[in-house]
Design a protein that fits this description.
Layout: E1 2-5, E2 14-20, E3 27-35, H1 48-58, E4 68-72, H2 75-78, E5 82-86, H3 103-121, E6 136-137, E7 140-141, H4 145-163, H5 170-181, E8 192-195, E9 204-206, E10 213-216, E11 223-226, H6 231-237, E12 254-256, E13 263-265, H7 274-283, H8 299-325, H9 333-336, H10 339-352, H11 362-382, H12 384-391, H13 401-410, H14 422-434, H15 441-448, H16 454-465, H17 470-473, H18 480-490, H19 493-504, E14 509-513, E15 530-534, E16 537-548, E17 555-564, E18 578-584, E19 590-595, E20 608-619, H20 630-666, E21 668-669, E22 672-673, H21 678-711, H22 715-747, H23 759-769, H24 776-794
Parallel strand pairs: 14-17, 15-17
Antiparallel strand pairs: 1-2, 2-3, 3-5, 4-5, 6-7, 8-11, 9-10, 12-13, 15-16, 16-20, 17-18, 19-20, 21-22
Amino acid sequence: LVARKYPNGQSNPTYLVECVDREDGRVRGKWVLRRKPDGKLLPSAHAVDREFAFQRALRASNVPVATVHAYCEDARVVGSSFYLMEHCEGEIWKDPRLPNCSPPRRERIYHELARSLARLHSVDASRLPDVPKSTSRGGRPRASYGLRTLRRWKMQYLASCAAVREDPLKNMMFLAKYLQDRAPNLAADDREIILHGDFRLDNIICDRRTDEVRAILDWELATVGTRDQALADVAYCCLPYYLPPTVLAIQTLTKFCKESGDLVLDRPQGVPSLEEFLSTYNAHLEAGGARVDGLVESHQWRWFVCLALFRVAAILAGVGSRAKAGNASAKNASVVGSRKVVSGVIDTAIALIELGDVGEDDGLRFELLKHRARIFCKKVHAIEDVLVEHESSSERWTPHPVVEKLKVAARGTGLWNCFLSKDLVQEARKKLEAGGLVLTEENWFQLLGPGLSNRKYMEIAEIMGKYPFSIEVFNCNAPDTGNMEVLIRHGTPDQCREWLLPLLRGEIRSCFAMTEPNVASSDATNVSATVERRGGEVVVNGLKWWITGAMHPRCKICLFLGKEKRAGAGKRSSHSQHTIVLLPMSSPGLKVVKPLDVMGFEDPPYGHAEVSFRDVTVPSANIIHKPGKGFEVAQSRLGPGRLHHCARAIGIAERALEIALERARKRVVFGSPIATKGGFLNDLAQVRLGVDQARLLVEAAASILDKGEEEGANPTSLRYVRMALAQAKVVAPKVCLEAIDFAMQVHGAAGMSSKITILPQLWSHARTLRIADGPDAVHLSTISKLEIKTQRAKL
């Protein structure tokens, strides 16, 4: 007897056993031996006894299976329990693309694959002798196969994590909760069928001449279920249409698009489409079999595909766990089962879930939005180098076409304009409808977003902050967000129809002109630019600088803050002398003088410009709110906007930490990686403390802002809001700078170059935040004054 181990397989070690004649060397017999792997195993895993039992039972049906001979539980024979079956000659196809086959043969092989699965699902399991009943009570399943499968693989995944002392992946646990809470309500069905549990192309042996299926292999996960659960097998068989190519253990029919980073089909000629494959499966089901007509776009189908992906991820995590424990079957197990690969599979599943699939569960809905934001931002990150290079090219003032494509895709995520709170969504719709806009409910949602609270948006903004280019992709970039809020709260229906609508659609950009070169603009009462009303017109004069967005080729509207120039205006309160006017960028007398760089960065295509206004004349209808209310309007846009910056700063800090850790693990100094040095570890802990504390401040400020909006003009609430906003605005940028500085220090000289790392660009942005929207000194003054008031109130 000669035994040779098959090189493939991540689960049960499999051997070809041959009986070789000692005299002439001829092979007299061939068998296949399957056994449990060595070492400590997870409960109920590697069930070779189940494989043996199901194949033996199915010999009485027309389902093609290998002939099994014996099952042995005595571990003394080969080291663990095993079974022996007849060797079946034929072809096993590993790659679903079938690269060495002609298109007609590919079509024929997939036809046989679908036919064999239909034959299996057409068998009445209750009529087969010796079918394992371990999953049944009184011959019937205890629960739906889908939920049993979820429970089993969730338990195995958690056990895999516990075995190597790793925390479960957050996206994995979210998907488990979604699958548990949103299982489709299928019609009860008493007919029992056999579910293979691992049915796929490389688990069948095809005849080399006819391509008919000679045997279905790998029955470890087989069980008895009801026919309404047959989609579980079908969806699992169709995983090559969904799985990313990063999964080395399973070949796929997908690839990543170089331009957008999207996962797209890469189906060679002859391989059927998903719909064609399902149609073939349907055609071969016997009467009474489970039908899947028209389900590809349904919640039911997506749920079973997500379940299949969850199971694959759990299996891969088990492979990775065994690799770390030292008892994996394959040499590349550590790569196959890495957390990065597992997380990628789960993200593929989450990307399939539609908002309607989560029903009215607000918590689940928000978690889905967060994961969507994270997944989509990864796409932006994938092209970050291209965008950074574009910023220093001769075409830098022209928006990159890839960004425009991503913006189109972002509209379908449910996160477009997600900075708008629920009250802003309602007010925007009210004014746009008053302006004559009529949309369907679905289109209103796509335009105005989910209407998140400020507190919830902070979590989304932090995710976006890690990848700065993603902010524009979701139409959540400043100053447009603040300008849209101004128009929603204070604009007329006509102003909203003309300017707010194209801003909401991302068709145009805007700027806000407040800061001036000749006065300290952190004190808005110093503003010297003028707004003069002459009959039915308004004439604007002044010089502004650091006007973010004014360089953008699509910047079409400027919100100009100036001081009233008319008799008696100076007698008013210093905070009642300002007016905000809408100025089209094409207005005569409005001139973009030059771009201003921020520590060498021009931030194209938005830029920060010096802009002059010389006798710019527009109708009085362009005044926002009322004359003299400019300071009040400006302050209303700054509150939420400051928090948006703070939350994104936390995201930048987290990005800096990731960059620092990646460098520290790889870079060796004085004989060991930087990550092992005591100084590095101490600094890392200090930065982590700061980031987490800043996040709590930002989240608390957002919650207080939400409560303040609910309570209206309550003086006590407004005081708390001002205090919280000021605290967050001071702390978040400082902590962000500390994190970036830490990462730069870890990189050494490399950390100083924007051609090597994005850290200098992140640093310039974070440093700007200590001045933009009010310098630290102003916010510290606000905090101290409010604190004195609070203490006085206690006396």
